[in-house]
Amino acid sequence: MARTVVVGGGIGGLATALSVAGRGHRAVVLERSDDFAELGAGIQLAPNGIHALDRLGLGERVRVGAVHIDELRFMDGVTGEHVTSLPLKGAYRSRFGNPYVVVHRGELYRLLLAACRDSDAVELRARAHVTGYRQDEAGATVLLDTGERVTGEVVIGADGIHSAIRQQLVGDGAPRVSGITVYRTIIPMERVPEELRWNAVTWWAGPGCHFVHYAIAGGRYLNLAPSVENGATEAFAGIPARRDEVLAAFASLSGVAQRLLELGEEWKSWVLIDRDPVDTWTDGRVALLGDAAHPMLHYAAQGACQALEDAVLLGDLLDGGDDAVAERLRKYNEERRERTAAITRLARDSTRLWHPAGDAAAERNAALSRLSPTELHDHVAWMHGPREFGRAAAPALPRT
After folding, report:
1. Catalytic hit among 92, 109, 214, 221
2. CB count, 10 Å around CB of 120?
3. What are 106-148's pLDDT values in tens digits?
């Protein structure tokens, strides 16, 4: 039985272990932290992500525990105008074959972790800090900071945006700093006025900023995530932020958006980072996956979905043994790079839609409000609709 070494025990790494184990491989997952755990708050899963979870045997459990969202609601944060909504029930679910849901990141992670622990073909190792890799015709080996070596037929680097495997394989240095800071907090839903408890992922667009909120944890909490283009030049993650700092950064937003922001406490802040798409993320028996391969801003709400897609397709391509491993991994790279690059660029470009001011914002509102539900569904179909995750799922971006 072929052995796959997975570096990184996040969502992508665990999904990869399940995927290859389901195709007859043994998998060992190496996580540098002291334990397998996932931090964070809400995570959005479009139908494509749930299709991938269905392939891993977890789709139904995710659907049962998730908040099934009725619409993506676009609001003008300055005027308070409801510009448009992309409906997510009825025709959307029929067309794309699954709901659009929100789960707590930790809940999704626990499902993946439990499935790995239940599998005789998956070994989980914490406190395993991988620093690099070596390979030859017989196999690939990762190097741990303790001097230990772990060998398999395949090595998959799923070790995130600061991936040690990517550093050796691609060598493109530090991630790109976006100049955008996002603030996050969650609040108990009982603190939210009943008239504002919308079953929607809601965007409030403002000049140089926007604010997103939605329910998580079965509707028990409201996740708040405002972002501002403030020219930040140094990356940081999870730094506490004062309430008055947050409110000052989004003073241009008014009405309901301000009411919700004022409910927030215990804010933390992140400077957003990503990387430019690259054509090649394989080297012989070694390949990258998820944020190690194609880290993207969260604005397309597709980061986790794309890691899950990677994992499913990789398992499909490794099915059947350990022969021609390098060729199989090159095929995985070729099948995935166009789709993930398109979503990476879309996530970056989305601020052009959300952050205009004045006349430009009014023109945007008018253009969006003219789109029918079917036209809105057409706009996201290439991203939300695929059930197979290769090149066929990466058409040219639709015009906006």
Report:
1. 214
2. 7
3. 899 999 999 999 999 999 999 999 999 999 988 999 999 999 9
Catalytic residue list contains 100: no
Percent above pLDDT 90 for the chain = 89
For residue 358, give its domain range: 3-174+276-393
**CATH assignment at residue 47:** 3.50.50.60
Alpha helices in the chain (DSSP H): 11-21, 47-55, 59-65, 91-96, 105-118, 164-169, 243-249, 255-263, 303-318, 325-354, 358-369, 373-384
Torsion of CA 223, 229, 234, 238, to 10 degrees: -10
Residue 21 placed within a domain: yes
Return the amino acid letter for 85.
S
Place of tokens 């029929």: 94
**Measured between alpha carbons, how far is 150 from 156 in angstroms, rounded to an integer?**
12
37 is a domain residue: yes
What domain count does the chain have? 1
The verdict on residue 270 lying in a domain is no
Asked whether residue 255 is assigned to any structural domain, the reply reads no
180 beta partners: 229
Taking each helix axis as running N to C, give the angle between helix 325-354 and helix 373-384, from 0 to 180 degrees, rounded to the nearest 10.
Answer: 150
